Amino acid sequence: MSLPVTVEGVTAEWLTSALAFRFAGVEVTSCNHLAVLPGTSTKVRVALEYNDVGREMALPSRMIVKGGFQDHSELMQDMYRNEMRFYRDVLPFINMNAPNCFYAGADPDRWQSVVVMEDLEQREARFCRAQRSQRYEEVERRLSAMARYHAQTWNSAEFEMGGRFDWVGERFSDWSLEYQNRYLEPDVWAHYVSLPRGAAVSRYLHDREWMVAALADIASQHKGKPVCLIHGDTHLGNLFVEPDGTPGFFDAQVSRAPWSLEVAYHIGCALDIEDRRAWERPLLEHYLSQLATGGVEAPSFDEAWEDYRRDLAYGYFIFAINETRFQTEAVNTAYAARFGAALVDHARVGSGDRKGQ
Q: One Pfam family, short name please (predicted)?
């Protein structure tokens, strides 16, 4: 169906058409925009009223309409489509706590993809933030949740041609690789490491050649490793916690990858630098035990430790080059500092005889 490309296009009439795919007979009689939340994609919080059919179905009085409604949006079309397919084609089949989705689709004649989901504020969910690092118990529960959906899709036949997830790409291929290479151009990279985030990390991490080599090493070492479906972007801004403490996920950028890419990314983002030093080993042991509980023949701790340490460089790269129209400089700096400290601690910084040690 035709999708709106402006916030103003999110109307009662359009929402009626979108909801009709799953909720026959529902009419949205009123749609008021309560807030517009810009970012990589834009979230429009709407207050809705319904006809008798919608009220009988107990559809929520508020929803979030998420899509590309900004000047940069056309450039992000692959990312939007990937997230839309997570809600439409992945979430119904995996064990992940995420917002209820009422519509997810792409416009065949445009670049736009849109998701209509529940407003988590009505669930009284608490949203995680980069400025508040996590406690041990919070990360432990999050890793348990990750291990469940990792185990569920571990080397799954659904990734093969004709399988349910055959469209899910690798992190170092296709549009994801194109996105990566765009920021490794020498002048682009130099710009980002000149920002406050660059001042928050070791000068060795400004070395573009080291960054290129570190990412190439990750991609090379991933070949032949078991893969699973990963959320793909588990920094704190994409996570929530239920009132009872149950961890939740949104804003997924799913891909097929070894587990270590996701676990290293999350631990690097979530923990205070000193806490990460104290807790990363026991947290990794916990994750591996949860994989085994899920029926997976988990790697040994020594192998897992090496994979975890190597993949920390990917998290650093993401926030070293992340644009301020997607996350504020304060957020990018906080994450870059956490990953930068981890890379120094694990002696995986660039330049000279330090490289690859």
A: EcKL
